[in-house]
Design goal:
single chain; mainly alpha; Peroxidase, domain 1; Peroxidase, domain 2; 2 domains; two-stranded antiparallel sheet; 14 helices; 2% strand; globular; binds protoporphyrin IX containing FE; binds 2-acetamido-2-deoxy-beta-D-glucopyranose; EC 1.11.1.7
Protein backbone atom coordinates (compact mmCIF):
# COMPACT_ATOMS: atom_id res chain seq x y z
CA UNK A 1 0.00 0.00 0.00
CA UNK A 2 2.70 2.38 1.06
CA UNK A 3 4.64 1.83 -2.15
CA UNK A 4 1.52 2.27 -4.32
CA UNK A 5 0.59 5.58 -2.73
CA UNK A 6 4.26 6.47 -2.90
CA UNK A 7 4.20 5.86 -6.64
CA UNK A 8 0.98 7.83 -7.02
CA UNK A 9 2.39 10.74 -5.06
CA UNK A 10 5.64 10.70 -6.98
CA UNK A 11 3.81 10.47 -10.29
CA UNK A 12 1.48 13.35 -9.54
CA UNK A 13 4.40 15.37 -8.23
CA UNK A 14 6.27 14.72 -11.47
CA UNK A 15 3.26 15.68 -13.58
CA UNK A 16 2.75 18.90 -11.63
CA UNK A 17 6.43 19.63 -11.72
CA UNK A 18 6.65 18.88 -15.42
CA UNK A 19 3.70 21.16 -16.23
CA UNK A 20 5.05 23.98 -14.13
CA UNK A 21 8.44 23.59 -15.81
CA UNK A 22 6.82 23.69 -19.23
CA UNK A 23 4.80 26.77 -18.35
CA UNK A 24 7.69 28.73 -17.00
CA UNK A 25 10.00 27.61 -19.78
CA UNK A 26 7.55 28.67 -22.46
CA UNK A 27 6.77 32.15 -21.23
CA UNK A 28 9.36 33.24 -18.69
CA UNK A 29 12.67 34.45 -20.05
CA UNK A 30 15.75 33.51 -18.08
CA UNK A 31 16.58 36.84 -16.51
CA UNK A 32 13.97 39.48 -16.04
CA UNK A 33 13.55 42.33 -13.58
CA UNK A 34 11.59 41.41 -10.45
CA UNK A 35 7.81 41.59 -10.68
CA UNK A 36 5.41 42.90 -8.08
CA UNK A 37 2.91 40.73 -6.19
CA UNK A 38 -0.24 40.09 -8.19
CA UNK A 39 1.35 40.26 -11.64
CA UNK A 40 2.69 37.24 -13.49
CA UNK A 41 4.30 36.30 -16.81
CA UNK A 42 1.38 34.07 -17.80
CA UNK A 43 -1.57 35.65 -16.06
CA UNK A 44 -4.13 34.88 -18.80
CA UNK A 45 -2.85 31.39 -19.60
CA UNK A 46 -6.07 29.64 -18.65
CA UNK A 47 -8.78 32.25 -19.25
CA UNK A 48 -7.47 33.98 -22.39
CA UNK A 49 -4.67 31.88 -23.87
CA UNK A 50 -4.73 33.55 -27.29
CA UNK A 51 -4.60 37.10 -25.89
CA UNK A 52 -1.10 38.00 -26.99
CA UNK A 53 -1.50 36.53 -30.48
CA UNK A 54 -4.78 38.41 -30.96
CA UNK A 55 -3.22 41.71 -29.90
CA UNK A 56 -0.12 41.26 -32.06
CA UNK A 57 -2.00 40.27 -35.19
CA UNK A 58 -4.47 43.16 -34.88
CA UNK A 59 -1.67 45.66 -34.36
CA UNK A 60 0.19 44.32 -37.38
CA UNK A 61 -2.81 45.30 -39.48
CA UNK A 62 -3.16 48.70 -37.78
CA UNK A 63 0.52 49.61 -38.26
CA UNK A 64 0.41 48.57 -41.92
CA UNK A 65 -2.22 51.28 -42.43
CA UNK A 66 -0.65 53.84 -40.07
CA UNK A 67 2.77 53.20 -38.62
CA UNK A 68 2.42 56.42 -36.56
CA UNK A 69 0.13 54.54 -34.21
CA UNK A 70 3.13 52.59 -32.91
CA UNK A 71 4.90 55.58 -31.30
CA UNK A 72 1.50 56.89 -30.26
CA UNK A 73 0.78 53.68 -28.32
CA UNK A 74 4.20 53.64 -26.67
CA UNK A 75 3.70 57.21 -25.45
CA UNK A 76 0.19 56.43 -24.14
CA UNK A 77 1.76 53.66 -22.06
CA UNK A 78 4.32 56.02 -20.51
CA UNK A 79 1.72 58.69 -19.79
CA UNK A 80 -0.64 56.14 -18.28
CA UNK A 81 1.94 54.53 -16.00
CA UNK A 82 3.63 57.74 -14.84
CA UNK A 83 0.35 59.29 -13.68
CA UNK A 84 -1.33 57.37 -10.84
CA UNK A 85 0.21 54.09 -12.02
CA UNK A 86 -0.57 51.75 -14.94
CA UNK A 87 -4.32 51.81 -14.35
CA UNK A 88 -5.74 52.85 -17.71
CA UNK A 89 -6.60 56.28 -16.28
CA UNK A 90 -5.43 58.05 -19.44
CA UNK A 91 -8.17 56.27 -21.38
CA UNK A 92 -11.05 57.66 -19.32
CA UNK A 93 -13.46 60.25 -20.68
CA UNK A 94 -14.54 63.15 -18.50
CA UNK A 95 -14.64 66.91 -18.56
CA UNK A 96 -12.04 67.82 -17.69
CA UNK A 97 -10.08 64.57 -17.99
CA UNK A 98 -6.51 63.34 -17.79
CA UNK A 99 -5.82 62.85 -21.49
CA UNK A 100 -6.63 66.48 -22.38
CA UNK A 101 -4.17 68.05 -19.94
CA UNK A 102 -1.27 70.14 -21.27
CA UNK A 103 1.34 67.43 -20.62
CA UNK A 104 -0.66 65.09 -22.85
CA UNK A 105 -0.42 67.32 -25.92
CA UNK A 106 -0.37 65.26 -29.08
CA UNK A 107 -1.85 62.05 -27.66
CA UNK A 108 -3.40 60.54 -30.77
CA UNK A 109 -7.14 59.75 -30.52
CA UNK A 110 -6.86 57.02 -33.15
CA UNK A 111 -4.40 55.16 -30.92
CA UNK A 112 -6.80 55.43 -27.96
CA UNK A 113 -9.43 53.94 -30.27
CA UNK A 114 -7.05 51.11 -31.13
CA UNK A 115 -6.87 50.17 -27.44
CA UNK A 116 -10.67 50.09 -27.34
CA UNK A 117 -10.74 47.98 -30.52
CA UNK A 118 -8.32 45.53 -28.92
CA UNK A 119 -10.53 45.36 -25.83
CA UNK A 120 -13.57 44.61 -27.94
CA UNK A 121 -11.77 41.85 -29.87
CA UNK A 122 -10.33 40.26 -26.75
CA UNK A 123 -13.54 40.45 -24.73
CA UNK A 124 -15.43 38.82 -27.61
CA UNK A 125 -12.91 36.01 -27.50
CA UNK A 126 -12.49 35.52 -23.75
CA UNK A 127 -15.18 37.52 -21.95
CA UNK A 128 -14.53 40.50 -19.74
CA UNK A 129 -11.38 39.12 -18.16
CA UNK A 130 -8.60 41.30 -19.63
CA UNK A 131 -8.07 44.84 -18.31
CA UNK A 132 -7.59 47.93 -20.45
CA UNK A 133 -4.47 48.66 -18.37
CA UNK A 134 -2.91 45.36 -19.52
CA UNK A 135 -3.90 46.08 -23.13
CA UNK A 136 -2.06 49.43 -22.93
CA UNK A 137 1.09 47.60 -21.84
CA UNK A 138 0.76 44.84 -24.44
CA UNK A 139 0.12 47.35 -27.23
CA UNK A 140 3.21 49.36 -26.26
CA UNK A 141 5.34 46.22 -26.10
CA UNK A 142 4.18 45.18 -29.60
CA UNK A 143 4.58 48.72 -30.96
CA UNK A 144 8.27 48.45 -30.14
CA UNK A 145 8.92 44.97 -31.52
CA UNK A 146 6.78 45.35 -34.66
CA UNK A 147 8.75 48.45 -35.70
CA UNK A 148 12.13 46.78 -35.31
CA UNK A 149 12.77 46.96 -31.58
CA UNK A 150 13.36 44.25 -29.00
CA UNK A 151 10.87 41.45 -28.37
CA UNK A 152 10.30 40.83 -24.68
CA UNK A 153 7.78 39.48 -22.20
CA UNK A 154 5.74 41.79 -19.97
CA UNK A 155 4.08 40.75 -16.72
CA UNK A 156 0.26 40.94 -16.75
CA UNK A 157 -2.59 41.04 -14.26
CA UNK A 158 -3.23 44.78 -13.83
CA UNK A 159 -6.71 45.97 -12.98
CA UNK A 160 -8.30 49.17 -14.27
CA UNK A 161 -8.64 52.18 -12.00
CA UNK A 162 -11.91 53.91 -11.23
CA UNK A 163 -10.55 57.44 -11.37
CA UNK A 164 -8.13 59.62 -13.29
CA UNK A 165 -5.77 62.29 -11.99
CA UNK A 166 -5.56 65.75 -13.47
CA UNK A 167 -2.93 66.98 -11.03
CA UNK A 168 -0.89 63.85 -11.58
CA UNK A 169 -0.13 64.91 -15.15
CA UNK A 170 2.11 67.60 -13.65
CA UNK A 171 4.53 64.83 -12.69
CA UNK A 172 5.22 64.16 -16.36
CA UNK A 173 8.58 65.71 -17.26
CA UNK A 174 8.41 68.61 -19.78
CA UNK A 175 10.69 68.61 -22.84
CA UNK A 176 12.45 71.72 -21.52
CA UNK A 177 13.99 69.74 -18.62
CA UNK A 178 17.77 69.48 -18.44
CA UNK A 179 19.28 66.18 -17.35
CA UNK A 180 19.48 67.06 -13.64
CA UNK A 181 15.75 67.59 -13.27
CA UNK A 182 15.02 64.64 -15.53
CA UNK A 183 17.10 62.30 -13.37
CA UNK A 184 15.41 63.67 -10.22
CA UNK A 185 11.93 63.17 -11.65
CA UNK A 186 12.65 59.56 -12.51
CA UNK A 187 14.73 58.82 -9.41
CA UNK A 188 11.67 59.72 -7.35
CA UNK A 189 10.08 56.63 -8.95
CA UNK A 190 13.20 54.48 -8.50
CA UNK A 191 14.58 54.76 -12.05
CA UNK A 192 18.36 54.86 -12.56
CA UNK A 193 20.28 57.06 -14.99
CA UNK A 194 20.56 54.04 -17.30
CA UNK A 195 16.79 53.59 -17.16
CA UNK A 196 16.25 57.28 -18.02
CA UNK A 197 18.62 57.23 -20.99
CA UNK A 198 17.09 53.95 -22.22
CA UNK A 199 13.50 55.18 -21.85
CA UNK A 200 14.33 58.43 -23.64
CA UNK A 201 15.32 56.18 -26.55
CA UNK A 202 11.56 55.81 -27.14
CA UNK A 203 12.07 59.06 -29.07
CA UNK A 204 13.61 56.95 -31.83
CA UNK A 205 10.27 57.16 -33.62
CA UNK A 206 7.19 59.35 -33.70
CA UNK A 207 6.64 63.07 -33.93
CA UNK A 208 6.36 66.26 -31.92
CA UNK A 209 4.35 69.46 -32.30
CA UNK A 210 6.05 72.83 -32.78
CA UNK A 211 5.18 74.13 -29.32
CA UNK A 212 7.15 71.32 -27.67
CA UNK A 213 10.54 72.15 -29.24
CA UNK A 214 10.23 75.70 -30.63
CA UNK A 215 12.40 77.13 -27.85
CA UNK A 216 15.28 74.99 -29.08
CA UNK A 217 15.45 76.39 -32.58
CA UNK A 218 17.56 79.46 -31.90
CA UNK A 219 18.68 78.79 -28.38
CA UNK A 220 22.19 78.58 -27.06
CA UNK A 221 21.58 76.36 -23.99
CA UNK A 222 22.06 72.89 -25.46
CA UNK A 223 23.80 72.55 -28.83
CA UNK A 224 21.74 72.10 -31.98
CA UNK A 225 22.93 71.20 -35.48
CA UNK A 226 22.39 74.39 -37.56
CA UNK A 227 20.91 72.33 -40.42
CA UNK A 228 18.36 70.83 -38.06
CA UNK A 229 17.59 74.28 -36.64
CA UNK A 230 17.04 75.62 -40.14
CA UNK A 231 14.70 72.77 -41.04
CA UNK A 232 12.74 73.14 -37.82
CA UNK A 233 12.42 76.84 -38.28
CA UNK A 234 10.86 76.18 -41.71
CA UNK A 235 8.51 73.59 -40.23
CA UNK A 236 7.48 75.94 -37.43
CA UNK A 237 6.78 79.51 -38.53
CA UNK A 238 5.48 80.17 -34.99
CA UNK A 239 5.50 78.22 -31.74
CA UNK A 240 1.76 77.71 -32.04
CA UNK A 241 1.90 76.19 -35.51
CA UNK A 242 0.11 72.84 -35.56
CA UNK A 243 2.89 71.28 -37.68
CA UNK A 244 5.03 68.43 -36.43
CA UNK A 245 8.64 67.33 -36.82
CA UNK A 246 10.02 63.80 -36.56
CA UNK A 247 11.78 62.91 -33.32
CA UNK A 248 14.51 60.91 -35.08
CA UNK A 249 15.93 62.59 -38.21
CA UNK A 250 17.80 59.44 -39.29
CA UNK A 251 15.17 56.67 -39.13
CA UNK A 252 11.88 58.33 -38.13
CA UNK A 253 9.70 55.21 -38.39
CA UNK A 254 12.00 52.52 -37.01
CA UNK A 255 12.70 51.47 -33.45
CA UNK A 256 16.50 51.35 -33.39
CA UNK A 257 19.45 53.05 -31.65
CA UNK A 258 19.81 55.92 -34.14
CA UNK A 259 18.29 58.32 -31.58
CA UNK A 260 21.60 58.14 -29.70
CA UNK A 261 23.60 58.75 -32.90
CA UNK A 262 21.44 61.87 -33.38
CA UNK A 263 22.33 63.09 -29.90
CA UNK A 264 26.03 62.68 -30.66
CA UNK A 265 25.42 64.95 -33.69
CA UNK A 266 23.42 67.61 -31.79
CA UNK A 267 20.26 66.47 -33.52
CA UNK A 268 18.11 65.67 -30.49
CA UNK A 269 14.76 67.42 -30.77
CA UNK A 270 14.06 68.30 -27.13
CA UNK A 271 16.34 69.88 -24.56
CA UNK A 272 15.62 66.78 -22.42
CA UNK A 273 17.01 64.60 -25.22
CA UNK A 274 20.04 66.63 -26.27
CA UNK A 275 21.23 67.40 -22.76
CA UNK A 276 21.74 63.68 -22.10
CA UNK A 277 24.81 64.01 -24.32
CA UNK A 278 26.11 67.06 -22.43
CA UNK A 279 25.70 65.83 -18.87
CA UNK A 280 28.59 63.77 -17.52
CA UNK A 281 26.19 61.45 -15.67
CA UNK A 282 24.53 60.30 -18.89
CA UNK A 283 26.93 60.94 -21.79
CA UNK A 284 28.73 57.61 -21.38
CA UNK A 285 25.41 55.75 -21.39
CA UNK A 286 24.37 57.54 -24.60
CA UNK A 287 27.66 56.52 -26.21
CA UNK A 288 27.26 52.90 -25.14
CA UNK A 289 23.74 52.73 -26.62
CA UNK A 290 24.86 54.51 -29.82
CA UNK A 291 27.63 52.00 -30.37
CA UNK A 292 25.76 48.81 -29.41
CA UNK A 293 22.10 48.39 -30.24
CA UNK A 294 21.77 45.20 -28.21
CA UNK A 295 22.92 46.97 -25.07
CA UNK A 296 20.23 49.60 -25.69
CA UNK A 297 17.52 47.01 -26.44
CA UNK A 298 18.24 45.04 -23.25
CA UNK A 299 18.22 48.16 -21.07
CA UNK A 300 15.08 49.44 -22.77
CA UNK A 301 13.18 46.18 -22.21
CA UNK A 302 14.15 46.13 -18.53
CA UNK A 303 13.14 49.76 -18.02
CA UNK A 304 9.79 49.20 -19.75
CA UNK A 305 9.04 46.19 -17.55
CA UNK A 306 9.83 48.38 -14.54
CA UNK A 307 7.69 51.26 -15.83
CA UNK A 308 4.85 48.84 -16.51
CA UNK A 309 4.63 47.99 -12.80
CA UNK A 310 4.35 51.48 -11.31
CA UNK A 311 1.59 51.57 -8.68
CA UNK A 312 -0.43 48.81 -10.30
CA UNK A 313 -3.82 47.66 -9.05
CA UNK A 314 -4.03 43.86 -8.74
CA UNK A 315 -6.24 41.11 -7.40
CA UNK A 316 -9.44 42.50 -5.90
CA UNK A 317 -8.36 46.11 -6.41
CA UNK A 318 -9.85 48.10 -9.27
CA UNK A 319 -11.98 46.48 -11.95
CA UNK A 320 -11.99 45.24 -15.51
CA UNK A 321 -13.70 47.88 -17.59
CA UNK A 322 -16.39 46.90 -20.05
CA UNK A 323 -15.34 49.90 -22.12
CA UNK A 324 -11.89 51.46 -21.81
CA UNK A 325 -13.12 55.06 -21.74
CA UNK A 326 -15.66 54.56 -18.92
CA UNK A 327 -15.30 53.11 -15.44
CA UNK A 328 -17.93 50.47 -14.60
CA UNK A 329 -20.34 51.92 -12.10
CA UNK A 330 -20.29 48.89 -9.81
CA UNK A 331 -16.94 47.55 -8.84
CA UNK A 332 -17.66 43.87 -8.85
CA UNK A 333 -20.03 43.31 -11.67
CA UNK A 334 -22.86 44.55 -13.75
CA UNK A 335 -22.46 47.73 -15.65
CA UNK A 336 -25.61 49.71 -15.14
CA UNK A 337 -24.80 52.95 -16.94
CA UNK A 338 -26.52 51.87 -20.14
CA UNK A 339 -28.30 48.96 -21.74
CA UNK A 340 -25.55 48.56 -24.31
CA UNK A 341 -22.89 48.18 -21.68
CA UNK A 342 -25.03 45.81 -19.67
CA UNK A 343 -25.28 43.56 -22.71
CA UNK A 344 -21.54 43.57 -23.14
CA UNK A 345 -21.07 42.72 -19.52
CA UNK A 346 -23.44 39.78 -19.63
CA UNK A 347 -21.79 38.39 -22.73
CA UNK A 348 -18.55 38.48 -20.81
CA UNK A 349 -19.97 36.04 -18.25
CA UNK A 350 -21.39 33.44 -20.61
C1 LIG B 1 12.27 61.61 -20.55
C2 LIG B 1 11.30 62.50 -20.51
C3 LIG B 1 10.34 62.67 -21.64
C4 LIG B 1 9.93 63.85 -22.13
C5 LIG B 1 10.32 65.23 -21.66
C6 LIG B 1 9.03 63.56 -23.23
C7 LIG B 1 8.36 64.51 -23.98
C8 LIG B 1 7.69 64.26 -25.15
C9 LIG B 1 7.05 65.26 -25.96
C10 LIG B 1 6.94 66.73 -25.63
C11 LIG B 1 6.57 64.63 -27.07
C12 LIG B 1 5.87 65.28 -28.26
C13 LIG B 1 4.36 65.12 -28.21
C14 LIG B 1 3.70 65.86 -29.35
O1 LIG B 1 4.01 67.04 -29.54
O2 LIG B 1 2.84 65.28 -30.05
C15 LIG B 1 6.92 63.24 -26.96
C16 LIG B 1 6.62 62.28 -27.89
C17 LIG B 1 6.84 60.95 -27.69
N1 LIG B 1 7.29 60.35 -26.53
FE1 LIG B 1 8.17 61.27 -24.99
N2 LIG B 1 8.94 62.21 -23.38
C18 LIG B 1 9.71 61.62 -22.42
C19 LIG B 1 9.84 60.27 -22.19
C20 LIG B 1 9.21 59.31 -22.92
C21 LIG B 1 9.13 57.92 -22.56
C22 LIG B 1 9.66 57.32 -21.26
C23 LIG B 1 8.47 57.30 -23.57
C24 LIG B 1 8.09 55.85 -23.69
C25 LIG B 1 8.74 54.86 -23.12
C26 LIG B 1 8.18 58.29 -24.57
C27 LIG B 1 7.62 58.05 -25.79
C28 LIG B 1 7.32 59.02 -26.72
C29 LIG B 1 6.92 58.71 -28.08
C30 LIG B 1 6.91 57.34 -28.72
C31 LIG B 1 6.59 59.93 -28.68
C32 LIG B 1 6.03 60.13 -30.10
C33 LIG B 1 4.52 60.13 -30.00
C34 LIG B 1 3.78 60.20 -31.33
O3 LIG B 1 4.41 60.14 -32.39
O4 LIG B 1 2.54 60.32 -31.29
N3 LIG B 1 8.61 59.50 -24.13
N4 LIG B 1 7.57 63.04 -25.77
C1 LIG C 1 -4.39 70.10 -7.66
O1 LIG C 1 -3.28 70.94 -7.38
C2 LIG C 1 -3.65 72.27 -7.05
C3 LIG C 1 -2.38 73.09 -6.92
O2 LIG C 1 -1.30 72.32 -6.49
C4 LIG C 1 -4.47 72.24 -5.76
O3 LIG C 1 -4.87 73.56 -5.43
C5 LIG C 1 -5.69 71.37 -5.97
O4 LIG C 1 -6.40 71.25 -4.74
C6 LIG C 1 -5.30 70.00 -6.44
N1 LIG C 1 -6.50 69.24 -6.75
C7 LIG C 1 -6.67 67.99 -6.38
C8 LIG C 1 -7.94 67.36 -6.78
O5 LIG C 1 -5.83 67.38 -5.75
C1 LIG D 1 14.26 49.95 -7.05
O1 LIG D 1 14.93 49.40 -8.16
C2 LIG D 1 15.86 48.39 -7.82
C3 LIG D 1 16.67 48.04 -9.07
O2 LIG D 1 15.85 47.91 -10.19
C4 LIG D 1 15.10 47.19 -7.24
O3 LIG D 1 15.99 46.18 -6.89
C5 LIG D 1 14.34 47.69 -6.00
O4 LIG D 1 13.55 46.64 -5.52
C6 LIG D 1 13.46 48.88 -6.32
N1 LIG D 1 12.91 49.44 -5.10
C7 LIG D 1 11.65 49.80 -5.00
C8 LIG D 1 11.25 50.41 -3.70
O5 LIG D 1 10.85 49.69 -5.90
C1 LIG E 1 16.24 81.77 -35.91
O1 LIG E 1 17.30 82.57 -36.35
C2 LIG E 1 17.37 82.71 -37.77
C3 LIG E 1 18.64 83.49 -38.12
O2 LIG E 1 18.84 84.50 -37.22
C4 LIG E 1 16.11 83.39 -38.29
O3 LIG E 1 16.17 83.50 -39.70
C5 LIG E 1 14.92 82.54 -37.89
O4 LIG E 1 13.73 83.17 -38.28
C6 LIG E 1 14.91 82.29 -36.40
N1 LIG E 1 13.88 81.32 -36.12
C7 LIG E 1 13.07 81.43 -35.07
C8 LIG E 1 12.03 80.39 -34.94
O5 LIG E 1 13.17 82.32 -34.25
C1 LIG F 1 17.00 69.11 -43.42
O1 LIG F 1 16.10 69.00 -44.52
C2 LIG F 1 16.69 68.50 -45.71
C3 LIG F 1 15.66 68.62 -46.82
O2 LIG F 1 14.44 68.02 -46.45
C4 LIG F 1 17.14 67.05 -45.46
O3 LIG F 1 17.75 66.52 -46.60
C5 LIG F 1 18.14 67.04 -44.31
O4 LIG F 1 18.49 65.72 -43.99
C6 LIG F 1 17.56 67.72 -43.08
N1 LIG F 1 18.61 67.81 -42.07
C7 LIG F 1 18.39 67.69 -40.76
C8 LIG F 1 19.58 67.66 -39.89
O5 LIG F 1 17.27 67.58 -40.31
Amino acid sequence: MASVSGIVTTTSFCILFFISCLLSASSEPLERPPIVDGLSWNFYLTNCPRLERTVTSHLQKVFKQDSGQAPALLRIFFHDCFVQGCDGSILLDGSPNEKDQAANIGIRPEALQTIEDLRSLVHKQCGRVVSCADLVVLAARDAVSLLGGPKFAVPLGRKDGLTFSINGTRNLPPPSFRTGKLLDTFAARNFSATDVVALSGAHTFGRAHCSTFFNRINQTGTPIDPFLAKNLSKTCPTSQSSNTAVLDVRTPNVFDNKYYVNLANSQGLFTSDQDLFSDSRTKGIVNSFASDQKVFFDSFADAVVKLSQLDVLTGKQGQIRAKCSVANTKKEGLVVTSVVEEDMDLRGHI
